[in-house]
Specification:
alpha+beta, 6-stranded antiparallel sheet, 3-stranded antiparallel sheet, 2 domains, Alpha-Beta Plaits, 20% helix
Length: 167
Amino acid sequence: MTTAIINSEEYLDLSFKISGAPIPLDNGYIIYSALCRICPPLHDLDTVGIHPIAGIPTNNNYLKLTHQSHLKIRIHHQQIPLIYPYLAGQTFEIGQESYQLNIPDYQPLVSSDNLYSRLVVIKGYQDATTFQEAVKRQLNNLNVEGNIELLTRYDGTPQRRQLTITK
């Protein structure tokens, strides 16, 4: 895997209001796949990111969309014309359900001294110790310094996929 170092001034987040039926709680790949079906160029972009969608968790592992739910796509500003016509104001499907996107707003990236992620996956690193070492290597490759903390369960064992980085 190659790591891309990005200049944050060249990237922004497109923020689409999203409406429709509840979506699966862990929806990152499902959303990405559905968007690639209506926006084929999205699949070929190496440095695009899709943020988790906010909503209200239900008791059956779904997320109820609200008026505050947005699909946010982090993208290089020069790549916006490649995806905008496919996504702005469009509908996409997941299974039998349809979801509507509005015309997006954009938000410039804002730097932060702290980072939290609910879901971090590094292929091939399932053990907590080797996972943390892989995180350190990737951050070093990006020249990012900070303290890495894996969140722990109530019994003290690390949650391998929840990560906090502080300066």
